[in-house]
DNA sequence: CTGTTAGCGCATTCAC
DNA sequence: GTGAATGCGCTAACAG
């Protein structure tokens, strides 16, 4: 069906080795022959079979990206960042959705290795032991995105979740709030834990005693925020502010507040996280912590590319991107 | 490094041909030998190299999914539908983001073919001539999602965009609206055109004359809706209702209305499309047309799988999934 | 510089 | 039923 290197060699009256050489610049070829070959290649519109190439080279120009559904809201943007960067360097992105299922993750990891992917980006939010083991066993470049392994033996790119939440909590405290609930995600994710710790530390640093019942650990989505909100706002003695681990949770919380007869921010202040496009358009506009999602994606790709080039060095780096408090309308100063 | 079929053959004292046979059930093998081989396979944890296999079989167990950024809001859900379905059948999803760039699309299509993908799902919203040509030239199973080629020579899965918009417009008319603006996406997308036609027809069928200046064709995102809204609501003689091609556009339009001192739905009714998760949580809750996004994804996968099995038959089917008007708060009845 | 040859890991035709 | 040999399309030693 398709053209092979043989066809080119025959029509150009050279050996297949020569064709391979001009195509890969692997060895010097005389200008005349090179040109002759290129002419045939162009006329035929020939391009080498990447599968055969992979079989020999053990590289595929493929990069696997594992995603789960956490923070699913910004996955799309994140992936675009990765994808664009990789594409510019001739790599293709193999996207794998794991739904956070360890078994599925492992399945994909093995599959990817068998396909000779040149690298992997993990956006699965909970670095499991199985993953660590896999990358210990297989020498495949990998970037942990938005989460790191405990020992920091692998490259990673993150924002400073601890500091970001610390800053957010501090902001609420500066506004005069002394009772602040924490609408969390699952504590299995280090990301969540780091945020929680930042929150606790900010409380502590400002002489606020953490209260039993301020923590709601459900998930990163709208429904979780709504449920936590309905639960919290039904209480007699409710906090004056709520920190949410995502904007979607914040939106759910705002809905719950309104359904409970509370106004935001007059009766309760609600802070989000992510700064998804809708955050600035919501009513009230959501005060939130901005993550540079696209940059996290493209940064992952850049780091991975570097690691692929330097494969074998065992080098490993960590990158932390800046966050930013975006002040809008959903949090107000307490002036009583 | 990795295990090969030779290792298995050696340890089981059989030829590689026999190993291949038990693994593929391609030819009968005596029970004793089969068992002996399987034992070695299990002990070694051997699995065949898919790349070598692809080189011979000309199939990869890979499916390419091309996406652009239109309706980017629901791509995530759509892809999950595809991915899950394919995964269950042993296929892996190769996701390619084209940004609607024809050149990039073509690049990917060629790459995918060279990787021997077993099929392709197109979610690029504008069936371009180049794409049609590609699939005419290359006999690769393909599903056009959310858009069809004009001639209907390829399989596709859609909702009935024409009817859905007709229904939505009719709903607004039934509410008493006689002047209805259309916040559109780019007219290069057939999807957009079909919706526009449904809108026009509904107007016509109910004796409403279409007015110059009711059409705003920008894009499917929030900003487009906002801009169109600011433009429209500044006018003296503004419509009482607006149909938007997506919920994000609707959200932008609602923002614009409020920034123009208009209340929704008291002063202007705004209707969305898609029913993204936020639509029901927005303030006001958005009246919209629901698309079964996940089902469009899994349906695409099912149709593709079927086509892969029946490859060569040249069979081609079209599937239309139901839409639904979701009545919420953003549109009100005119009672004057 | 260039051509010949030998694999990469596997499926499959042939002989037996 | 089973094994030896051939080749998928390509790269890389090896000679010349």
From TrEMBL, chains A, B:
Gene3D superfamilies the record matches: 3.40.50.2300, lambda repressor-like DNA-binding domains
Pfam families associated with the record: LacI (PF00356), Peripla_BP_1 (PF00532)
Record carries keyword DNA-binding: yes
GO MF annotation, one: DNA-binding transcription factor activity
Coiled coil: none
Keywords: DNA-binding, Transcription, Transcription regulation
Domain HTH lacI-type: 3-57
Protein name listed in UniProt: LacI family transcriptional regulator
Organism for this UniProt entry: Paenibacillus rhizophilus
